[in-house]
Design goal:
Length: 955
């Protein structure tokens, strides 16, 4: 059930994208159904968790790396998952009525569910490596949500800023959690959380702590990493309410709570975490008081309350942790309600500017009542839930001593609470009370229940928790506090009255002073804006601009665009490092006996060296050097045959043919001679580096071959048939033992083909298009566009080649062959049709979408691998059995054939896509309209244009 809970939003993200074609209601209903289904699953697990059971589930993924898909649900995870799904469901309802008809709602809900799934993954993950994957996924999905209105420059910049800060913090978190796993000897959180003493005694504790806090502080917008969150307010209001009240910004706080048992309790923890939280709380509250944008005010108030929470967990006592847990719930309710309320004001009044608002309560009584409840709770006014957790916080602050000073925490915490009262009352009073205006951008009125219903549910929770905290929230808070502190927190009966304590007087002072600040806000606002305080966004922009300039200068100094220079640097470094290592140790000559070379091998070696030398000597003549490159490939293929590697020989020669043909097509449009670009001394330098590298590689190969070597080949020989069902060991390695490598290779091949497509797609436009239009052949062209002999030969060869490819494909598991070679054979046959009969002729008959073919190939290979996992086997493990049919007899079927189909489709699609793009560019250069069809087998020069006269370059 845990895996179902974690995967529902991620898999369900497709539902809104597919259902949007049936209307906006269908997309919203699909998103709501997915969230509600996950919430029902969570509710089914809740009784066991509240009874003290930790629900766990695990599936091995890459055990050698310690990566298991391990999940667990304890009270802390239950609370956060409940907030993620519960508030998420309200956001879905609200967004349906908030977004305009012009907004792509299917895309919005898809992004929202992806983010929801990523957040669920964080709070449910047991394996820290899996947690890190979900952590970065929240950064990526929040980037999409914040930048949802991508037509707005501020939305794009806000999304980039959030990704930059939270993504960078995620990198720090990766390092910290890996160190933590190293200390504990396990990457499972359930194991790590029991190793508190060992972790705190380790010399790596402080580095791990600093890196982990870097990830937490950036995610939860703690000073000085706070600046990204206000600029993320350019997102639609449903996004702000979801990400910045109950989910994303709480991820850092969640991590502080989750790792509290092993990190808290030290002086370093207290000084860094509590101090950062306190500073953030006061600083952000001060800024919030002077923000005129409703969402800007709420953004800084969120930063302040996140500092509130960080300070509580930083104090390090079990009771402070319990108060932090309680305030997480309270803040999620009143802050989400206020964000949704700000959206209502913007939606109905047409502005979020506080200086253009006021007097709305009479016009929008429902929205005003909801804002009053949530705003007073944020201010910490009884009898609402915010008052209870605020007073409990003040009580903990009153007893906290900072660097020997008992007054620092009580005074600053009271100051933060005072400012909180002031900005909360400003939101309520300056928006809904005061004189009614006659210059609202729109005529304000209460919206339909679709917009006020979700914040009403949250406001009801605010009031219910405030009036009956022990009944509504007490059991959950005590259970979660026990999970956070490993049972150190004593159960507490939550109540609105805590007696006459210093915290009561601090709270009364905060309310009184907050009202006083609001009364004098206009005067203070002039002083604030006249002070010329530094702007965080401006500092960020200047810093990033300076970093970009410095990086560009560094890149320009190291890389001027010359491939030759880059290769010399790369290979030269490898040569220096390799020879330095070789000369730094003593070594003896290997004593393994060699094998006498046959005359044929000697001849082939001489031919290989000669062809390689000719490539170097004739490299300026591109066609001739290409011929020599083909000779090199042919000799390598013959060497594979000589060394009993027929699979490699077939692959090599097939790749060689395809590569040479495609390069011939490309070279057709390029100058036939490479200009002299290097001075003699540089060529001498390059030659010296190349010779040194060749000697180094050759020497390393010789050293390996002349020494005894324990090879793993014996394992493959012994297990190819029993484990993979094939006698062709090479093919079984490719589709089973090392199937993941092959899967990665076909993905790379597909990406390379798509890269060629993207590069050549733009060739026909702009300056390159003008050069292409002005291109003229630099050699005499044959009048025969489609030579009869070539056309006839390729037509006859095509069915034979397909039969050969099918034969090679089917026999590949037990004899030389396989999907890769078969795909190349088919590609060569089709490529010859293009060359012989022309692009238009062949393309009209080969009605295949090359992009879809590549995608289908990769998808089939992936599904084949996942199918093995369904039956409990590792990814891409082959299954096989023997069957018998009349007339045919007994034969073997293996799932590897499906994987090979995927490989073959990807190979064919990649080659054809590259060929199609090259052909289209050639058609443009030849001034031949794509629709023009020349008659195949046409040998009558009279039906063709006169041959182009050679240019000076051709002469």
């Amino acid at each position: 059930m845990l895996f179902l809970l974690a995967l529902l939003p991620l898999l369900g993200a497709l539902a809104p994208a597919l259902s949007i074609r049936f209307g906006r209601n269908a997309a919203a209903l699909a998103a709501g159904a997915v969230t509600l289904a996950a919430l029902v699953v969570l509710a089914g697990l809740a009784p066991a968790v509240m009874a003290g059971e930790t629900v766990q589930a695990s599936v091995p993924w890459i055990p050698a790396l310690g990566l298991n898909a391990s999940l667990f649900l304890d009270p802390l995870g239950l609370m956060f998952a409940g907030m993620i799904l519960g508030i998420g469901l309200l956001i879905v309802v609200y967004a349906r009525f908030y977004l305009s008809a012009a907004d792509p709602m299917g895309r919005f809900f898809t992004y929202l569910l992806l983010f929801q799934g990523a957040m669920l993954g964080i709070v449910l993950s047991d394996n820290i490596l899996l947690l890190l994957i979900f952590w970065e996924l929240t950064s990526l999905s929040s980037f999409l949500l914040i930048g949802f209105w991508r037509h707005l420059p501020e939305a794009r910049q806000g999304a980039r800023m959030a990704l930059f800060v939270t993504g960078g913090g995620g990198l720090a978190l990766i390092g910290g959690l890996l160190i933590l796993g190293h200390i504990a000897g396990s990457y499972e959180l359930t194991v790590i959380l029991q190793q508190g003493e060992a972790i705190q005694a380790s010399p790596l504790y402080l580095p791990a702590l600093l890196l982990i806090l870097g990830g937490c502080f950036t995610k939860s917008a703690q000073f000085p990493f706070h600046f990204w969150l206000p600029h993320a307010m350019s997102a639609p209001t449903p996004v702000s309410a979801y990400l910045h009240s109950a989910t994303m910004v709480k991820a850092g706080v969640f991590m502080l709570a989750r790792l509290w048992p092993v990190l808290a309790g030290t002086e370093a923890w207290f000084l860094i975490v509590a101090t950062t939280g306190l500073v953030t709380m006061v600083f952000a509250a001060c800024v919030a008081l002077f923000k005129d944008d409703l969402k800007g005010l709420l953004a800084y108030s969120t930063i302040s309350h996140l500092g509130f929470l960080t300070m509580l967990f930083g104090i390090g006592t079990p009771m402070a942790a319990l108060v932090g847990v309680f305030h997480i719930i309270n803040h999620a309710t009143f802050k989400a309600a206020l964000f949704l309320n700000a959206g209502i004001v913007d939606h109905e009044a047409g502005t979020r500017d506080l200086k253009r608002l006021g007097g709305l309560f009479g016009l929008m009584p429902i929205a005003g009542t909801l804002a009053l409840i949530a705003g007073l709770s944020m201010a910490g006014v009884p009898p609402l839930n915010g008052f209870i957790s605020k007073e409990m916080m003040l009580y903990e602050a009153a007893g906290t001593v900072w660097l020997g000073q008992p007054w620092v925490f009580p005074v600053l915490a009271t100051l933060g609470a005072t400012l909180s009262v002031a900005y909360s009352l400003r939101y309520v009073v300056h928006v809904y009370f005061g004189p009614r205006r006659d210059d609202y951008p729109k005529k304000p009125h209460d919206p339909g229940i679709g917009l006020w219903g979700p914040p009403a549910v949250l406001a009801a929770l605010v009031a219910a928790i405030g009036l009956a905290p022990a009944l509504v929230a007490g059991p959950l808070v005590n259970a979660v506090a026990g999970a956070v502190t490993n049972g150190a927190a004593e159960p507490v009966k939550l109540a609105i009255w805590h007696g006459v304590t210093p915290a009561l007087f601090m709270s009364m002072a905060a309310i009184g002073l907050g009202v006083l600040l609001l009364m004098n806000h206009r005067r203070l606002d002039r002083l604030w804006h006249g002070a010329g305080l530094p702007d965080a966004k401006r500092l960020f922009d200047r810093t990033t601009a300076a970093a970009v300039v410095a990086a560009r200068r560094g890149v320009d100094a190291l890389q001027n665009g010359s491939l030759q220079r880059a290769m010399v640097a790369l290979i030269g470094t490898a040569v220096v490092v390799g020879f330095a290592g070789f000369l730094s140790v003593d070594h003896v000559v290997g004593d393994r006996a060699g094998v006498a070379a046959s005359p044929a091998a000697v001849v082939a070696w001489i031919a290989l060296v000669t062809a390689t030398a000719m490539v170097v000597l004739t490299h300026r003549a591109r066609y001739i050097s290409l011929i020599y490159i083909g000779i090199v490939g042919l000799i390598i293929s013959m060497a594979f045959v000589h060394l009993s590697a027929p699979d490699l020989a077939l692959t090599q020669i097939s790749v060689e043919v395809v590569t040479i043909l495609l390069m011939l097509l490309a070279l057709n449009l390029l100058p036939k001679q490479t200009p002299v670009e290097s001075r003699p001394w540089r060529r001498i330098r390059d030659g010296g580096v190349a010779v040194a590298a060749g000697l180094g590689v050759g020497g390393a190969a010789w050293a390996v071959m002349t020494r005894p070597l324990d090879s793993i080949s014996g394992y493959f020989w012994d297990n190819a048939y029993s484990g993979g069902g094939g006698t062709n060991v090479v093919n079984v390695i490719l589709v089973d033992f090392r199937g993941f490598d092959t899967f990665g290779e076909i993905i790379v091949l597909g990406i390379a083909a798509l890269g060629i497509f993207a590069l050549l797609e733009t060739v026909e436009t702009g300056a390159s298009g003008r050069r292409l239009t002005a291109w003229k052949p630099d050699t005499v062209r044959s009048p025969e566009h489609h030579p009869m002999m070539l056309v006839v030969a390729t037509r006859l060869v095509l069915p034979l080649a397909i039969m050969v490819a099918l034969y090679i494909f089917l026999r590949g598991h037990n004899q030389p062959g396989g999907g890769f070679i078969a795909g190349l054979v088919v590609a060569v046959a089709i490529l010859m049709q293009y060359m012989a009969s022309g692009f238009t002729f062949a393309d009209q008959r080969l009605r295949a979408d090359h992009h879809s073919m590549i995608g289908a190939g990769v998808l089939i290979a992936a599904v084949t691998g996942l199918g093995a996992m369904v039956f409990g086997a590792p990814f891409l493990t082959s299954a096989f059995d023997y069957f018998s049919l009349p007339l045919i007899g007994e034969f073997e079927l293996a799932t590897a054939i499906l994987f090979d189909i995927g490989v073959a489709l990807t190979v064919i699609g990649a080659v054809m896509l590259a060929l199609a793009q090259l052909s289209q560019v050639a058609q443009r250069a030849e001034k031949q309209p794509p629709s023009e069809t020349r008659t195949a087998m046409d040998v009558d020069p009279g039906r063709n244009e006169p041959a182009a006269a050679p240019t000076e370059a051709g002469q």
